[in-house]
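EI: anyone free to look at a 250-residue chain?
SC: sure, send it
EI:
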Amino acid sequence: ENSTTVKNETHYTISFYPESQTILKGKTNNIAFTIKNNHVPVKASGKIIDNNTGKTISNFMSDKYGMGRFNLLYNSSYSAVLKINGIEKSFSLPEANPLGFIIQKKLHSSDENTASILLKSNTLSASNYHKESLILVLHRNGFAKSVAPIEINKETANYQINFLKENLFSGINTLTLFDKNNKPISEHSFWNAPENIELEVTQFEASTDSLTLNFSMLNKLADANLSISVLPEATISYNNLQNIITEFQL
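SC: here you go
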């Protein structure tokens, strides 16, 4: 009698997501990443190697959703080395750009009524855009809420722009930096915690395996919709590695 052995092949991948969608040479860059094995997020650890010296610069680890981040001063080329069952697998990090800007939201602001945004460049970028007026636009879904002009000076690498919190969108906000030709040269999105939303939930219909609910936003003329599937943990369709929270974070 013949027997068939199924061998589970491992295929690890790392995807890198630089802050502001760019890596700037000579600056400390914040880089998010996801680690997957055969397209399934996994928890794994590794190290960052300087390709020119072979030295370990830092270590990194993903969470149970396969996500993580690290900060790296970019003045060389680098590789991320995963440690998998005693075997090391190397992945090249993206190369740095000589010109560009990094947009960061400060975690803590000196004024509780404002959100502080940092615009960081390197020496070459400051000289290249000297005396040029750049435009930082706060927007979402094609609607601009605030516009801040910034005149670049070759003597200044970092700029701080303050937005009133009352002028931020509730939830996701996007900041895009435009040059004098209205060309986007950097972009960054951040989360602004929304105020509490008052909802009224009523049951509309119920059957053997289905429940339909109505959601009404009190005192607001707006629709609220939610679709959700609730399954027993043993159900084959249930995958606890990906859910509404992890999908949003990705």
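EI: Residues 123-128 form the longest helix (6 residues).
SC: 👍
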